[in-house]
Amino acid sequence: MGRPKREDTPEIEKEMKSLAKKFINFRESNKLSQRFLAEIIHISRRTIQNIEAGKIIPQQRTLDALEALKAKYEAERKISKRKRRKTEDEGEF
Question: For the segment 13-36, what is each residue's pLDDT rounded down to a tens digit?
Fold first, then answer.
């Protein structure tokens, strides 16, 4: 029989599109595959596909995991820039 179809309001559709863009932008800017991102945040690749297609709204724990991962990547990027700048200042490459 299946689940009854949910009626999405314009607000829900807007939220799903916003979250889809958030996932896609993060994944692409860090050159991650859907499969790898799914493994890192402990969800299925199919869930990533549905989020990025704007079909579902991710659970809060999924959003929290993505935010934690973004923070980690950003911190690593800052450290990498500092190391690169220090090497350039010293005249090494």
Answer: 999 999 999 999 999 999 999 999
